[in-house]
Fold these 2 entries.
Entry 1:
Amino acid sequence: MTDMSMMLGPVALRSPLIAASGTVGSVVDFARVGALEAYGAAVAKSVSGTPWPGNPAPRLANAGAGMLNAIGIENPGVAAWVDEIGPLLESLPVPVWGSAVGKTVGEFVDVAGQLAATEVEAVEINLSCPNLAGESIWALDAGATAAVVKAVRSAIDKPIGAKLSPNAQDIVGIAGAAVESGADWLVLTNTISAAAIDIETRKPLLTRTTGGLSGPALKPIALRCVLQVRDAFPTIPIVGCGGVRSGSDVVEYLLAGASAVAIGTAHFERPRVGRMVMKQLRAYCSRNGVDRLQDLIGGMQPW
Ligand SMILES: Cc1cc2nc3c(=O)[nH]c(=O)nc-3n(C[C@H](O)[C@H](O)[C@H](O)COP(=O)(O)O)c2cc1C
């Protein structure tokens, strides 16, 4: 039987699968429909310092090879999350990671601090949210990324992951800023900016016109980010994220250099997809004589 455990920096994972933030609610709700035993960790929906109302509907749309969303990180704020979800974390059959967002560095620090004081195993810093300037996101700028990661790093003792954006022109530069500022791992990636139009109404499918594209169309882009970052920083642990819905998708990310792989959009179609992915992964390993899954990390053979 293949050993499916992985090390992600300081965190030991029983499985390489992570349930991606925003696609499994608070994790508590997902426990009723998902197959949490298949995952090494599950990331709760991002929370901010004060409640964020989110964007008006329609904020989800089918975009052919993927899904468009512009939820706007609707969330009840960290205090409500800590009160309502915090006490339930221990009862879940999977380690939970919190996810912090903020419009200022101080808001990130406040949220991460409050999350870290609960039973969460780690805190993901979602740098793909807008900063106070409104139109830009943190993860497009190395200085802004470094400021957030550094401040959170010095404020909490729990492991932190920095979740980056495929919209970044220089993903290696942004990754470098996060690593040097103390991130324990990088999550590559969040959604990519995209749009679609209803030709009958001639309106965009989303009220905000543009949103984030996730699902199969994102996979080759996120995989490219993993390859580039792994090449530049061979020792930084990476969570590959984008379009994973099968065991072979996981193998691809591992070969590219990821140590774990997050599943998002696939949960909407198939909440127990994690169970199927692990089955396919085991079949691949037994077909290929892989005793330890970690032996696949970075195993891509160049031409
Ligand atoms: C409806 C929806 C909501 C999301 N909300 C969040 C969020 O709150 N925080 C976050 O870090 N990522 C969020 N994401 C991004 C996912 O965690 C993931 O990075 C992205 O969807 C790519 O993975 P996938 O192709 O497997 O879905 C959201 C994605 C979707 C589709």
Entry 2:
Amino acid sequence: MHATVPPEFEIVIVGGGLAGSVLATLLGRAGRQVAVIDMHDVYPPDFRAEQLVGEQCGQLAQLGLLQDAVGPLPPIPRSVAAAGGKLIGQVEAPHYGFAYETLVARLRAAIPRTVRWLTGRVVDIATGIDTQAITLAGGQTLTARLVILASGLQRSLQRELGFERQMRRAGHSLTFGFGLRPTGPDAFPAPVLVHLGGKRDGVDYLAMFPIEGATRVNLFTYWDPRSPAVRAFRQDPAPMLHRLFPRLPALLGAFRIEGPVQARVNDIEAVANPVRDGIVLVGDAFQTSCPATGTGISRLLTDVERLCSAHLPAWLASPGMAAEKIAGFYADPVKQAADREALHAAEYRRALATSDGLGWAVHRGLLSLRRRIGGWVGGPERLTTGIQPLVNAPPSPAPAAAPDYVPEAGTCLPIGRTSWSSR
Ligand SMILES: Cc1cc2nc3c(=O)[nH]c(=O)nc-3n(C[C@H](O)[C@H](O)[C@H](O)COP(=O)(O)OP(=O)(O)OC[C@H]3O[C@@H](n4cnc5c(N)ncnc54)[C@H](O)[C@@H]3O)c2cc1C
């Protein structure tokens, strides 16, 4: 039976983070009647993605949103890769660094005025074939033909709606973020540097890049967040950093660690039963990604692109929003490939950094050999795909007495969790 009163909006987006803001802009520009609801008027400071790299820039450009996302910032055209304290190659791919909240703020600013913005917490969504009723904490209700749930890691609403999460690996990885400042006369060898981890030390890699005039480090590990070593690292990262990357000061010159050490545990999980009348899940709300793989943003941009170009126009062109329509999005081969690749990359990178056994030892040896002789590594080692020989290389540092780390006492913040289970 069809509703007698037509819904107020064609689409209501719940969550105005990265996925929700991009969707709101594209749908608003396409002339759709859209509302976005988010708990926060201004996205709060949050340790999330701090880099936009390579194909993600291409995806945003294709959606017509790269300029909105990066503002006047010019890209850094290439990153330098290092292993064992030596420069091993470069990656020709644009790189932008930002605080996550800055990126979301820029994308929110691009949302057309025709899109209605509401600040509030959604507490219930009654779904049906024709009309969805969205209720906010204050009791206000909106109606729409379709709800797009872009609520990220927030769990309570999804649980309320009966979506079940399937945990693939709890505590899959642990990511750190902190500042670095050169203290000597030598500048860093490159603005963006990726230093690969050692053998089975549980470190994937360290990425160093500029954010708003300062140098930021993301350290991607598979360490146990409860271990004493992690606690020690968060209070004073310098000794452990020195053990893990003994030649880093020779490569970078003298530096000191600045500010608090942020840490985030990342669970890998996905919604097991997403198909439902009238509601579709995108971005982290559907599946989480390991930060080390750099697939969180590409996956959510794939979701947005597939929805806006392949599915939504057809869904809206015919009556009803039954589960059979919605199922087409989750069966989309491009989306499925992006989700599958992200899971595969997460498993592969973890195994590479942590696995025992002859097979992995041989694999690591071959990778290291290929890096040394060819400077190129293919396959699923996504991060290093595209490493080419250095052109106009800054000289690799001669073996020298490493300058000392000058640590600043790290401030121990609570460890965040990229998971529903903590919320
Ligand atoms: C430490 C870390 C580093 C990372 N690094 C990278 C990286 O380098 N590259 C990469 O590609 N990915 C990275 N990621 C992953 C990436 O950050 C995420 O995939 C991406 O931010 C998800 O965006 P989203 O729009 O799905 O969710 P979010 O941006 O979290 O947006 C969700 C929004 O929903 C709102 N909301 C939730 N519930 C409600 C409700 N009930 N009512 C109203 N509003 C609600 C929230 O307020 C929020 O604004 C990293 C993640 C972490 C944790």
